[in-house]
Amino acid sequence: MTFLVLLSIFSFGFTNLDSQGNLDRSMPIRIYWKRISKESQFESLTRIQNKMGYGIKFQNISENKADFQFVSSLDRIFELRKCSDNHYRVFTTCDSQHVEVKSLFIHFKDDSSWFPAITKIDLYGIDAASGGVITESIVP
What we know:
Blueprint: E1 2-7, E2 32-35, E3 41-44, H1 47-52, E4 56-61, E5 65-70, E6 73-82, E7 88-94, E8 97-109, E9 117-127, E10 133-138
């Protein structure tokens, strides 16, 4: 059975801030998933999901910027940063274009094991230079 998980953490305010409005250095992003088959509920990731599938690994964290990678696709670096309008947004590079990430759809196959196999990640974003829509399928 194949499932689809929507992660649109970046536009729904899941950035974790401290009392001064800076990134919480211990956990700059709180990841949730939206289970399409369960009345569109947001649910926290389990420990196994964080470590083996959909979690993120932070590299550099400062007050207004955090670089991270998804554990399922460690070759892609994402950057959460505070923009000039004081909102936090996520950026990455797609085919040498600087892209603001709007949402990610993670496709996975549940083979009833502890670790579902991620088959692809669909990225949707906006080209930071031109404003054009960018889509990309990432195969881990």
